[in-house]
Amino acid sequence: MTLPTATKRPPAAEAPTALPPVKRRNAELVMTLFAIALTLYAMIEAGLTRNNEMPPSLFLYGGLFGGLAVLAHFFIRFFAPWSDPLLLPLATLLNGLGIAMLWRLGEATGDTSRASAMDQLILTAASMVVFAGIIYFLKEPRTLQRYPYIMAVGAVFLLLLPLTPLGSEINGARQWVNFGFTSLQPSEFAKIALVVFLSGYMVTKRDVLALASRQIKIGPVKVLDLPRMRDTAPMAVMWGFCIIVLVILMNDLGTSLMLFGTFLAMIYVATQRGSWIVIGLTAFFGACAAIYPFVPHFRVRMVTWLDAFRPDVFCTDEAMANPESFCVTSGNSQQLVQGLFALAEGGMTGTGLGGGQPGYVPEVQNDFIFTAFGEELGLAGIMVMLMALALLVERGMRIALASKELFIKMFASGISFLIAFQTFVVIGGVTRVIPMTGATIPFVAKGGSALLSSWIMVALLMRMSNNARKPAPQAIQDEGATQVIQR
Amino acid sequence: MNKPIRRLSIFALALFGVLLLNVSYIQAFAAEDLREHPFNRRQFAESLNTHRGSIIVGSQEVAYSEPVGGDSDQYQRVYENGQLYAPVVGAFRAGSATGIEAAENSFLDGSHESLAVNNFRDMLTGEEPKGADVTLTINADAQQAAMDGLEALGKNGAAVALDPATGAVLASYSNPTYDPNSVASVTETDQAAQNWTELESAEQQPLLNRGLNQRYPPGSTFKIVTAAAALENGATPESTIDAPETLDLGAPLPNAWGGPCNNGAPDSLAHSIEISCNTSMANWAIQLGGQTMQEQAEAFGFNQGEMEIPITVTESLSPLETDPNILGRSGIGQANIEATPLQMAMVAAGVANDGDVMKPYLVESVQNSNLEEVETAQPEVYTTAISSGTAADLTEMMIGVTAGDEASGPGAQIPGIDVAGKTGTAETASGPTHNWFISFAPADDPQVAVAVVVEHGGGSGGTLAAPIAREIMEAVINE
User: Fold this and answer.
1) CATH of the domain at B422
2) Where would I find the Penicillin-binding protein transpeptidase domain in this sequence (chain B) (predicted)?
3) pTM, two decimal places
4) Does residue B152 belong to any structural domain of this protein?
5) What range does the domain containing B453 cover?
6) B2 closest CB neighbour out of A17, A340, A394
7) Residues of chain A contacting residue B3, judged by C-beta atoms under 8 Å apart
8) How many Å apart are CA B222 and CA A222, to the nearest integer?
């Protein structure tokens, strides 16, 4: 539909999107302290409820985690003083709640073999070092624009790494690389590299992707504005990679969905053409439908999602033969359904930290940590978490709006959308909105790779926001008065 | 480029909106259903952590909870004389419960609303919360007599005893039984679950409470219902009807001994009951008609659907028969007549209680953890089956069954006490006959009404079932 020209906004209307030139560093400090306090309070509550005692290592956690967060704040104060003041407190809050929950699942129950807050705390420390490093060294994120193809090769390399002998399979998905002392999930970093590549690539190819077109008409009505065949090459490569490599070879549905979703979002931002989304979605879901009969693990996931409550999906055959066993031996949808039971148990206000029984959910320390929050903090607590994540995303989008360079706009919106979409894929999977795919909630879930990549993303956003919000240098000439040369 | 970024951020917000709506739905609207979902083990796991009340018979706690100890918060359910009471008490297991443990669960685990005040008071005073105790109507001696008698026979079967005046269930035993302790362990759950599975699949069906949940053809014990219908419709104990050697009902219907009932002459109602004549009683049923027969059976409690006592009792059946051949057979408790032992005990109890059938009940009272009565049984009339005159006539006739010159059930005689009874030997489609006896005593002041059935006993009701009935009645009367 065409809009009458009178309603079109003049370009000047975009000016108010620039953030006001205020630092608000003190506000950031207060909010960060609040997030730390919330974390420690959560640990105290869990300790008192479960073991009737204060967490014995409360000061250690308070000192280390609180100290790190406060240090990060002062680091920002010096090296990125104009950056967005909400990002650090939000990241601290989410990371802290994650640590508190892992402490409750691991240390508080005396079994740290599966979940350990101390490990998570050490990983947090390492992540914050990287966070500081990025803020310090990457003064101008636009320099990344110079190496799009290196980034692309890097992303592909990282994604394929698990297929090499180094790779290992955990819970049916081949997405880990074992280094002996620790294992990493390279796809967590590949996605950031991919956003860098796409930002650089789209900025250069933007015009041709946006403008060259073939119109499809039915009679006089324009139905779709299709790009030229040769311009669909990047889309085809991306699609082939996501479907063939990630879904078929690696059974990594989550990464596939996340990367392709982010790709679509970024191509839309670059070109502003809906037809790319239509083509992309058609190709992706068409491929999914086509491979459905041939890829068993994909089929299993769909059945698990749609028929989660069917007895033969919930139980194993063995358990089916003995209905009284209550399906203690788990079938495919056991985790999903137990997760829903955990959420239901929590209800509106939850059982209180330490008061629930999150252990019913298998592997609760990973993606399903969300259900542990749902059970113990209730709908109220979950809403807070979702709002914190949403706020993080929207601040990121705001940075994209406020930036002036196209590359930064692409980059910031791409990373923000990545966070949003990752959250959606994970939590949507856990709460049965979409099929379960296996990815991690940013900041919250156990796992070093995910935590590190989340902090990297926040570091990049902070650096970009600093540059966007920094007021333009003052005009030096002032009514002919004495010139003051300012550095 | 800002317009698509704005749109993208709205889309991102929409994604969060979907998540928020969905978790709201799960945690607010669907939560109740999910919590009670049959797959959900949480509800039962929690129940293992509650201090359940005891189940009491007489002054003995036959089921009680004791802490597992160690660092476990769980309680172990312990059953005293488990095998004896299992048919009534049932078993409380990790996962579910049966019998009274299931039927009175809300009292036993303290969640019943009438316990709310008590629970609140316990909370205030810092007392450990405990469920309410449930006292049963079961008479320990009568229950033991039922078990001893049926176990000695080594046959499957059931015995139910009622207090005719109130409907209180004095005994309810089903053979074979099982030990609930073997399936209730909370520490060795795998073994417990395996034991339960074995019980479930056992050919003898030890988990089936035959007294309340198994229907049998009642055979000649149903002649009491037929006689009641005749008396209610103008007949007297002296009224006679043809009682030949065999009656042609499609296939010939003989008498148990192969001869006529009164040397070929029409036989009186009283004599027909005393010797358990088939041909005369079939003739009575045909003469009274299907409608009348069904109404009389329903007046005793047939066709009334399931009953909660509070254990669920299976419905007994007396369909409307229009074919005289089938009607004749149903008049002697064959064809499509099917009754639970409890139902036949209710027939005896109705006759004993001047025609009023009292509603059976198993729970005498419920006491909260501070020993205050929360509930006490209130006896109520279930149906009025017959007039008191008819009841008196039937009682006389039934005394003849145990004490008459040609008594068919002398095995139920108790020295010095008149016993009113009726034998039954029911043909089964497969295998030997089921052997029945229903009775009440003392006939002039009934304290107990009994029904005993021996599955595929292959003998007669008078020889196999009547002695067990006598032992049960003696156990009650001699208290």
Assistant:
1) 3.40.710.10
2) 157-474
3) 0.66
4) no
5) 213-363+378-477
6) A17
7) 272
8) 86
Interface contact A424-B2, CB threshold 8 A: no
Q: How many domains does chain B have?
A: 1
* Residue B227 falls inside a structural domain: yes
- B169 phi/psi in degrees, rounded to 5: -85, 115
Minimal CA separation from B175 to chain A, in Å: 23
Residue closest to B340 by CA, chosen among B322, B371, B318, B358: B318
As a three-state string, the secondary structure of A31-68 is HHHHHHHHHHHHHHHHHHHHHCCCCCCHHHHHHHHHHH
CA–CA gap between residue B87 and residue B177 (Å, rounded): 7
Burial class (CB in 10 A: 0-12, 13-18, 19+), A375: buried
Long-range contacts of B118-122 (CB under 8 A, 24+ apart): B118/B368, B118/B369, B118/B370, B118/B372, B118/B374, B121/B370, B122/B369, B122/B370
**Which one of A312, A361, A376, A397 makes the best mutation probe of the B interface by having the most chain B beta carbons within 10 Å?**
A397
What is the per-residue pLDDT across A346-363, written as a single tens digit (0 to 9) for each?
888 888 888 888 888 888
Q: Measuring CA to CA, how many Å separate A345 from each of A426, B25, B74?
A: 20, 13, 20
**Does B30 fall in a domain?**
no
Interface residue A168 vs chain B (CB under 8 A): no
Q: Is the peptide bond before A435 cis (omega within 30 degrees of 0)?
A: no
pLDDT (mean) for B113-120 = 79
Q: What share of chain B is helix, strand, coil (3-state, %, to 5)?
A: 40, 20, 40
A346 touching chain B per CB within 8 A: yes
* B233 SS3 class: coil
Question: What residues in chain A have per-residue pLDDT under 50?
Answer: 1-16, 319, 322-326, 328-329
Under 8 Å between Cβ of A216 and A227: no
Residue A120: φ, ψ to 5°: -65, -35
Mean pLDDT, rounded, of chain A: 84
Question: Which tokens belong to B264?
Answer: 């070929």
Instruction: Please state, in angstroms and rounded to a whole number, the distance separating the CA atoms of residues A173 and A249.
Output: 10
- Measured between beta carbons, the chain A residues lying within 8 angstroms of B47 are none
Contact A423 B23 (CB under 8 A): no
B96: closest CA of chain A, how far (Å): 9
Pairing label, strands B381-384, B75-79? unpaired
Query: Do A452 and A188 touch, CB atoms closer than 8 A?
Result: yes
B183 found inside a domain: no
Q: Minimal Cα–Cα distance from B77 to chain A, Å?
A: 19
Question: Is the pLDDT at B234 greater than 80, yes or no?
Answer: yes
Interface test with B, best of A314, A322, A335 (most B CBs within 10 A): A322
Which among B65, B174, B182, B220 is annotated as catalytic? Answer: B220
